[in-house]
Write a structure and sequence with these properties.
single chain, mainly alpha, 74% helix
Amino acid sequence: MENQAGIKCTRFRGIYQHMDDIKSNLNRASQINDKVKFAEELSVEIEALINCAEYEEQSSECSNCQAISKLNKRTVDIIVKAKTLI
């Protein structure tokens, strides 16, 4: 998947590419346990972006990265929580 956010940060781009690979695996998984495994793997990458040491509060790229990361985090949390409901 292409970096649709238009963020040029090399850290974001590298992690985002890896996240896309994990998301593809997550979407192909048919069993909830497999989905949770990929969701937990994705969560590690998301946390790396949320807790980025290079974060600059005034940067629109950083703000966009944080927004995307937090949205992805909510999605991952739902998938992990779904396992407890089954």
